[in-house]
């Protein structure tokens, strides 16, 4: 059976809710043989002396927890929320990252993926397949990575996040395509802060809050769940229409177009 | 289970959306039942087709109807869903669908797959078929026994393979109607289908309607239903393209988890159907009572019927039943799927309350 962006998104939705596969024996249609186990009550110990132990004799364990570092604090306080329902995330992703403002003590230094990469790695952004050459095969690998969340290794994953926004999505693919077509010379000027001013509105379904990274808050467009966008597969499983899919695809292309225009505008302003 | 509060919010939105659709319906699916004839005689079939005489309308009559439909309502956002009987039994099948394709309609079909050889698969592509769902209802012995068709399983699998070989279709699906006898075969079926390059597997329960009413031993038990839902959910958690069908409100536990959408019976809201003799219905699976015939395409203009009639389908059935009307899930279920409503007893023939939720 084929996996598609939709099945990947469905699995991701469950993963986000911490749902994992529950073993089900389809052969046991009666359901009578299924064990209902209380994970706490069912624990048994082999040590016969356990119940007769003297609690005072129990070994005391002292643990030392290392103080949390500033970097870890920053990472821990980053929160990401994503819409679980409605049109696929690819087209309507909500990502809110909030970095707490320091009230006391030295200011927190924000650590980004970009900072973690040394310069040599930064130069190899886009080398998704790890062959040290950035070419069409990387575009194919990145497309696959976006669809199936499959990376050759951790380095490949870092190099796939071309705009350094912490997400690997279609915008990275667009940048890579533009690079391969010669429209841009390198990726250094494309990073998430360039996106911070971007605002999109679409009817009343879209809520948009835009704040720059400088103010420690990055918020992108949110599209609320719309029942009208549900593609209800009616009897016999036939898709009602591909027009809805076309609409969504067009939306995605529109978003990409707006994104590239915004980047170009910023570049012009900088010049 | 996914977040309940979020589901509740979305179901409330769906409820409001449905109410809006009742006032302003939006045709998306138009089923065309080309024939009642069928080359299989399934024990668990939801319809009453098979060895029957079938009043059928001609290619030219279909062409005129589709021209009129395009003039009045455009082809945009509409899908023709071709069904039967076995639609490929019609000798003029490709003439009818060729006309639809020429007019710009997108279409998909359901079939038992037994008549799809290499030539038919190529013709289906040529006439613009986008999607197809082939019925395979169990392992070989089970399938052939249920369908009372020796060799039916092999032919259906060959049909799927022929379609895949020709390629270029948007969606090739296998549909399995699960019975109490075949539910034990789900894991084995999954292994088989997983090795075939289909786009999805739709797994539904046998509905207590049509010929199936004569075989209560095939109906799923309460435990079977739970097993079925868990099976589908687990496959979806693993990222497999397995789905339940459009029928029935499933409660907070399984809504949106075993299919990609929240429950909405689309009959009369998104969906209309033209029976083999041209009668206009909401959904072909709804009991064929004279009072449910909204018109006939040979004498009525479909767009006017769609706009001015169908009142019987644009209301809550739960209002007709004291238990349903007091149920705490009624605003999301509204009496469940129209096709499973018992219009004599005024109650649903299948309700998942106390089974799944």
Q: Would you give an account of this structure?
A:
- The complex is a heterodimer of chains A (271) and B (357).
- Chain A is mainly α and 271 residues long.
- Chain A has eight helices and four strands; from the N terminus they run H-H-E-H-H-H-H-H-E-E-E-H.
- In chain A, the strands form two sheets. In chain A, strands 1-3 form a two-stranded antiparallel ribbon.
- In chain A, helix 5 runs antiparallel to helix 7 (170-180).
- Chain A is globular and about 55 Å long.
- By secondary structure, chain B is of the alpha/beta class.
- Chain B is 34% helix and 15% strand.
- Chain B has helices at residues 4-23, 59-73, 93-102, 118-126, 140-146, 152-166, 186-194, 222-237, 251-254, 302-308, 322-325, 330-333, and strands at 29-33, 79-83, 106-111, 129-135, 171-178, 200-205, 242-243, 271-274, 279-281, 295-296, 341-342, 347-348.
- In chain B, helix 4 crosses helix 6 (152-166).
- The two termini of chain B are 12 Å apart.
- The mean pLDDT of chain B is 93.
- Classes of the chains: A mainly alpha (271), B alpha/beta (357).
- Chains A and B meet through helix 1 of A and helix 1, strand 2, strand 3, strand 4 and strand 5 of B.
């Amino acid at each position: 059976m084929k996996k598609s962006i939709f099945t990947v998104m469905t699995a991701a939705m469950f993963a986000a809710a911490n749902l994992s596969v529950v073993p089900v024996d389809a052969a046991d249609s009666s359901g009578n043989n299924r064990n209902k186990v209380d994970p706490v009550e069912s624990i048994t110990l082999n040590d016969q002396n356990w119940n007769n132990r003297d609690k005072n004799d129990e070994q005391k364990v002292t643990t030392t927890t290392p103080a949390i570092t500033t970097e870890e604090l920053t990472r821990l306080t980053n929160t990401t929320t994503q819409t679980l329902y409605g049109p696929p995330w690819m087209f309507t992703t909500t990502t809110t990252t909030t970095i707490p403002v320091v009230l006391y003590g030295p200011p927190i230094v924000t650590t980004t993926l970009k900072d973690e990469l040394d310069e040599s790695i930064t130069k190899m952004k886009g080398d998704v397949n790890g062959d040290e050459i950035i070419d069409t095969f990387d575009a194919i690998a990145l497309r696959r990575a976006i669809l199936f969340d499959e990376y050759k290794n951790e380095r490949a994953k870092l190099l796939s996040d071309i705009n350094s926004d912490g997400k690997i999505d279609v915008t990275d693919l667009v940048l890579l395509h533009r690079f391969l077509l010669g429209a841009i010379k390198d990726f250094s000027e494309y990073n998430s802060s360039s996106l911070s001013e971007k605002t999109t509105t679409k009817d009343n379904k879209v809520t948009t809050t835009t704040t720059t990274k400088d103010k420690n808050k990055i918020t992108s467009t949110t599209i609320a769940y719309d029942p009208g966008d549900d593609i209800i597969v009616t009897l016999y499983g036939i898709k009602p229409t591909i027009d809805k899919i076309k609409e969504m695809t067009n939306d995605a292309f529109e978003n990409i177009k707006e994104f590239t225009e915004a980047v170009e505008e910023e570049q012009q302003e900088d010049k | 289970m996914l977040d309940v509060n979020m589901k509740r919010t979305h179901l409330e939105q769906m409820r409001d959306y449905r109410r809006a659709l009742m006032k302003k319906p939006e045709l998306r699916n138009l089923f065309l039942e080309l024939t009642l004839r069928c080359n299989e005689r399934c024990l668990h079939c939801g319809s009453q087709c098979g060895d029957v005489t079938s009043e059928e309308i001609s290619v030219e009559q279909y062409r005129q109807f589709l021209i009129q439909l395009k003039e009045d309502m455009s082809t945009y956002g509409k899908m023709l869903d071709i069904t039967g009987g076995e639609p490929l039994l019609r000798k003029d099948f490709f003439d009818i669908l060729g006309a639809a394709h020429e007019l710009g309609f997108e279409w998909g079909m359901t079939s038992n797959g037994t008549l799809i050889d290499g030539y038919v698969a190529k013709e289906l592509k040529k006439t613009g078929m986008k999607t197809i769902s082939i019925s395979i209802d169990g392992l070989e012995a089970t399938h052939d026994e249920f369908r009372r068709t020796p060799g039916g399983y092999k032919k259906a699998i060959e049909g799927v393979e022929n379609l895949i070989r020709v390629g270029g279709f948007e969606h090739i699906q296998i549909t399995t109607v699960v019975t109490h006898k075949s539910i034990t075969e789900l894991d084995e079926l999954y292994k088989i289908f997983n090795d075939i390059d289909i786009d999805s597997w739709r797994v539904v329960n046998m509905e207590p309607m049509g010929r199936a009413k004569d075989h209560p031993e095939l109906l799923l038990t309460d435990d079977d239903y739970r097993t079925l839902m868990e099976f589908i959910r687990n496959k979806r958690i693993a990222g497999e393209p397995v789905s339940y069908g459009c029928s029935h409100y499933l409660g907070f536990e399984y809504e949106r988890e075993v299919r990609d959408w929240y429950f909405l019976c689309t009959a009369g809201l998104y969906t209309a159907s033209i029976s083999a003799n041209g009668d206009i219905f909401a959904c072909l699976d709804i009991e064929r009572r004279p009072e449910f015939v909204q018109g006939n395409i040979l004498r009525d203009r479909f767009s006017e019927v769609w706009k001015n009639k169908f009142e019987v389908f644009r209301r809550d059935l739960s209002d007709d039943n004291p238990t349903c009307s007091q149920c705490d899930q009624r605003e999301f279920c509204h009496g469940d799927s129209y096709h499973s409503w018992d219009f004599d007893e005024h109650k649903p023939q299948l309700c998942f309350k106390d089974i799944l939720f």
